[in-house]
Design brief:
Length: about 100
């Protein structure tokens, strides 16, 4: 069995920020997350029938890497540099780390 961990995040983007989020903000944030140790893959999905609802699926080498990245993101939320990214969010609905079992 592998130590790899999948991070699932379901979140809502403000209606007036959806286009900007998809075309600019997510790319910038994705590059930042890719710089964290242990990040293996990062995919973003947009709900088909609910505008503004997104799902991020991030694969990490292990739980330690995933938790370290989550803490770094929390720290970044206090930094004004990331205000445009954070202001696009309406709410985070779900955040979970999971492991493959079968």
């Amino acid at each position: 069995m592998t130590d790899q961990v999948m991070e699932l995040v379901i979140y809502k983007i403000k209606p007036n920020q959806v286009e900007n989020y998809q075309t600019k903000i997510i790319q910038h944030f994705r590059e930042l997350v890719k710089s964290f140790d242990g990040m293996l893959d990062y995919r973003t999905y947009h709900a088909v029938k609910e505008d503004g609802l997104f799902v991020d699926q991030v694969e990490w080498k292990n739980l330690d890497c995933a938790e370290f990245a989550a803490e770094k993101v929390k720290e970044m939320q206090q930094d004004e540099t990331y205000a445009p990214y954070l202001s696009a969010f309406e709410e985070v609905k779900f955040f979970l780390h999971v492991k493959h079992v079968a």
